[in-house]
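Hi F.,

I've been meaning to write this up properly since the lab meeting, where we talked about keeping a consistent format for the predictions we share between groups. The idea is simple: the sequence comes first, exactly as it goes in, then the structure tokens exactly as they come out, then a line or two of notes. No screenshots and no reformatting. I'm using this chain as the first example so we have something concrete to point to.
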Amino acid sequence: MLYLLSSYFGDYFGPLRLFDYVTFRAVLAGIFSLGFSLVFGGRVINWLTKLKVGQTVRTDGPQTHLVKSGTPTMGGVLIIISIIITTLLMADLSNLYIWILLFVLVSTGALGFIDDYRKIVYKDPKGLSARAKMLGQSSIAIITGLFLYYIIGLPNTTEVVVPFFKSIQHPFGIAGFLLISYFVIVGSSNAVNLTDGLDGLVSVPVVIVAIGLAVFGYIAGHKIFATYLLLPHIPGSHEIVVFCAAIAGATLGFLWFNAHPAQVFMGDVGALSLGAVLGTIAVIERQELVFGIMSGLFVVEALSVMLQVGSYKLRKKRIFLMAPIHHHFELKGWKETQVVVRFWIICIVLLLISLSTIKLR
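Output, unedited:
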């Protein structure tokens, strides 16, 4: 909205021309979304408390978590609203990438809302059935893939960039593109959701990944930079930087209230939507493999659950003391804050490795 105003009135009021620069709008987006979350976070918590939407804690989990029972959940609503308002204010609304990202954010957020609602109303930690949740996520991922391929005409849709190599871009057809998009979006959504199990654990990794994707989006959106660094040039993808900044700011603001001991939990409404939208950004930028490195913590958390379930079904034995893996380390004797901070450090290292792929080819 402000970007459009600047295009109309920039000639009459010079400072409005600053909104022509995506970097300026990205900085404002981060600050605004952070401020919005901080200002309205307490009000949202009070509102959720009045609605009695308290978290139902797993009885088979670490006993130290039992004290968290009743803490307001569904705090991800604050993040989603902050991102939407910030994006509408700061982004170029003629850019179709912005609208597909808003679609993914809102639709998966709605799916997570239903899941959280069932957990609260029926006092069932499992929430929405796995089949129903997967059906909803699959539909969103397929619609997103088809939109990117047929409506936007995403450049280089049939190629996946292999990091650390100059010219290896493996070609795929439409079927391959849709399959990759499906696994990245759905997988990321579920992986982030599985990671959201400790106070503040998922917030910082989401911010870190959003910053990393913003860097790749900025480069991909500029032909000269993309050509020099041997990355796919995706016209219009530089606008994603504003969206990533909104994600980072809104999530940091939420962390203010979610830090240990948490006053509110993100819930599936936040985790499912953030994971899905980060995966969608990676697909748009054609950096699915780098995204796998960058979000390595999410990948490991998801794999730990898959290995645990598979091992128990096949051998009737467990690999970990408990899955996801952050609970394993808790049961090994690590304090919750130790697990969280150490996992944050791992995420920072993974981000640095991912950014190194830009030049190390």
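Notes:
The mean pLDDT is 88.
Residues 24-356 form one domain.

If this format works for you, I'll send the rest the same way.

G.
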